[in-house]
Write a structure and sequence with these properties.
It is built from 7 helices and 6 strands. By secondary structure, the chain is of the alpha/beta class. It folds into 2 domains: 2-45 and 99-220, Ribosomal protein L4/L1 (Ribosomal Protein L4, Chain: A); 49-92, no CATH class. Helix 3 (137-147) crosses helix 4. It is elongated, with a radius of gyration of 27 Å.
């Protein structure tokens, strides 16, 4: 598959060959859905909370005497049947209650397969040198318009903060544009936005980096693994 490559003026300057087989060969909707559901669930804060009657602040004094009034027996006024009282079945959810997981290799395959789906639909804009000269929002919005980005877009920026600084400053205020680091590119980010805008070098690094390890070597010899403290370059202890 040959993907068009554009410059910062929005003009096509070439193509980038991408092996479809390395992205799964064909779109696997079931795998992508499982990954999207997982990423979506893991975004939940789990901050839903209501109070039981013991957690409601106030006096615990008995509201009236036990006998002789002809009314029902009650203690304090924070029982669930009273207005302002606690909840009989209070919510106390945590993030862990909603968290889901997938094996690393499945997760990576889903992310790469999501990229294949975007490529098939021509919704990936590969840029040759994504580094605006000035951090101006107006200029960056005009650049996106030249690319034909008329709906939501995910801008994947490189790991070099200084190199991607202008792009980050210019794009962060553009309506409908989300930002992420290229190493944090996931199926959720790609599929919740119509377009993906990424630098050619960053896309090549993502394809050939740890995200490309979807076999046994992902566990045996993982890319991007940090060297243990005190080890030399050849892996021996210093």
């Amino acid at each position: 598959m040959d993907v068009p490559v554009y410059n910062m003026q929005g003009e096509q300057v070439g193509t980038m060959p991408i092996d479809e087989a390395s992205l799964g060969g064909e779109v696997n909707p079931a795998l992508i859905k499982q990954a999207v559901v997982m990423y979506h669930a893991n975004l939940r804060q789990g901050s839903s909370k209501t109070k039981t009657r013991s957690e409601v602040e106030g006096s615990g004094k008995k509201i009236y005497k036990q006998k002789g009034t002809g009314r029902a027996r009650h203690g304090d006024k924070y029982a669930p049947q009273f207005r302002g009282g606690g909840h009989a079945k209070a919510k106390n959810a945590r993030r862990e209650h909603f968290r889901q997981d997938m094996p690393k290799k499945m997760r990576r395959k889903a992310n790469r397969n999501a990229l294949l789906a975007k490529l098939i639909d021509a919704e990936v804009k590969v840029i040759d040198g994504l580094s605006p000269e000035t951090p101006k929002t107006r200029d960056f919005a005009a650049f996106l318009a030249k690319l034909g980005v008329d709906k939501s877009a995910l801008l994947a920026l490189g790991m070099d903060g200084e190199r991607s600084k202008n792009a980050r400053l210019a794009a962060r205020n553009v309506d409908g544009v989300s930002l992420c680091r290229v190493d944090q590119l996931t199926a959720w980010g790609m599929l919740t936005n119509r377009y993906l805008v990424i630098d050619r070098a960053d896309l090549e690094a993502w394809l050939n980096g740890p995200s490309g390890q979807t076999g046994k070597d992902a566990k045996i010899n993982p890319l991007g693994r940090r060297a243990p403290a005190g080890a030399s370059e050849n892996g021996e202890a210093a």
